[in-house]
Amino acid sequence: MISSKRTKRDENRIILGVMLFSFLTVLLTLFIFFYILPGIEEVEEIKKETYKLSKELKSYENKGISLEALKKTIKDGSLELDKKINKDYVTKVLEDVDADFYKKNLENNKPNKTYKEFIEEKEKEYKDASESTSNKTKLTLGILPIYSDTIKEEGSMTDFQFINYIESIVSTFNLSFNNSIGIKELKQIDKYSLSNSDNTLDKAIFEIPIELDIVGRKSSIIDFLHFIENVGKISIDPETNELTIDKETAKNGDLFSEFKIKKLDGQRNHASKDYNIYNNQIIDIENILMTDYIDSSEQNMTFEDTKSFLKYLKSTQDKEKFEAKIKLNFYVKGLPKYKVEQLMAEFNNKINDLEKRISKAISKTTLSATQKQRLTNLQSNIKNIKNSVAQANNTKGIMDRYQNISGYSGLLTEYEEELKKLNI
């Protein structure tokens, strides 16, 4: 056998080969460690996330989205709403939704149907109930009319109709009043509206406070208060969910039984056989102040309940004259923008007039030190109110601006009364 002896060159070649192999091995190891392994972990995370999303999607396809998931989606902005929709309004609505109601009505509880089929079935139910809904809308418009500048549709109410409605109530119960009736103030009941635009004031519900100084027989005032307490009351049938306006239930000859056939003045000529006096605009009493106490001490009588007491008053003190100051709240759905602007203009005219009167009065030399100090205080108060209103006008929408100035209306009235006392 012939043996070959390695040369120095061969040895160097082997060493270089080993070194190159080692370098490539280290390089490959680093590549695997820094690039391949993290990629594998990322792929595994993606697979897990994909599986989770697939599971959630399957759940949504079958059951729909849960209330909590919907709230979270809206809150963190995962679901992009239409720009015209007020996010605060949607959030508020969802907060008020009962979890059991949502689960029962908006989550699919039928395993043999997909969520899409479930929703389509719900849509059909609501379409089938459209006639019933129309009747409910018509009914509610009777007790919560739409405020309008003109009569646009059934259920609309104008300034003239509103004032006429109040006068007809007073007339129906043979009462009189000596203060003027007019809309001097408005209060928005619900804070949120569906749109951010000022042009959708018709989406909100407003309270119109009216003060009356009424005079009449005790029995008439009792009937008047009974009407106010019951007008516009709604009952819901627990089985059919039908809405109805309550009717007088007193038996013939009992207290208030005449309300079964009683009609408001102004409605007598066009009243149908199914006329219900309580099917009118809803009202409530904020406060009532009586100038005299009602005498219930005669013969030391005791009464089992309120009706017994009222029956006693109507039978024994029927014709006695009685006076009361009463503040009533009427409610309307919607408000034309011009009405808010009109009230704001009236407020501005009033505060400017007060400012001029006070400035003119301060310049008088016949004022006592006390009068001058009080007028100076009033002048400062007026200035502060105007500054507050001006700031609100720069940053807020029309209804917020009105709500801001309406809070000062009472103060301006007090200032006017004070100027009268100072003979200014």
Task: Please tag this protein with its features.
single chain, 424 residues, alpha+beta, 5-stranded antiparallel β-sheet, two-stranded parallel sheet, 12 helices, 9 strands
Give me the secondary-structure topology.
Blueprint: H1 8-62, H2 67-75, H3 87-96, H4 99-106, H5 115-128, H6 130-143, E1 146-147, E2 156-157, H7 159-172, E3 176-177, E4 187-188, E5 205-217, H8 218-230, E6 234-236, E7 243-245, E8 283-290, H9 306-316, E9 321-333, H10 337-362, H11 369-395, H12 398-421
Helix pairs in contact: 2-3, 10-11, 10-12, 11-12
Individual helix count: 12
Write down the secondary-structure element order: HHHHHHEEHEEEHEEEHEHHH
Q: Level of helix content?
A: 40-55%
| Alpha-carbon Rg, integer | 38 Å
Query: Span between N and C termini?
Result: 140 Å
Strand tally, please?
Answer: 9
Strand content: 5-15%
Shape: elongated
Mean pLDDT, to the nearest integer, reads 77
**Regions with little confidence, pLDDT below 50 for 5+ residues:** 192-200
The assigned structural class equals alpha+beta
| Largest sheet descriptor | 5 strands, antiparallel
Number of structural units classed as domains: 4
Overview of the molecule:
- With 424 residues, the chain is of the alpha+beta class.
- The protein has 4 domains: 16-54; 67-128, no CATH class; 140-333, no CATH class; 338-421.
- It contains 12 helices and 9 strands.
- The chain has helices at 8-62, 67-75, 87-96, 99-106, 115-128, 130-143, 159-172, 218-230, 306-316, 337-362, 369-395, 398-421, and strands spanning 146-147, 156-157, 176-177, 187-188, 205-217, 234-236, 243-245, 283-290, 321-333.
- Strands 3, 4, 5, 8 and 9 form a 5-stranded antiparallel sheet that branches. The protein has a two-stranded parallel sheet with strand order 1-2. It has a two-stranded antiparallel sheet with strand order 6-7.
- It starts with 7 loop residues before the first helix and ends with a helix.
- Mean pLDDT is 77; it is low at 192-200.
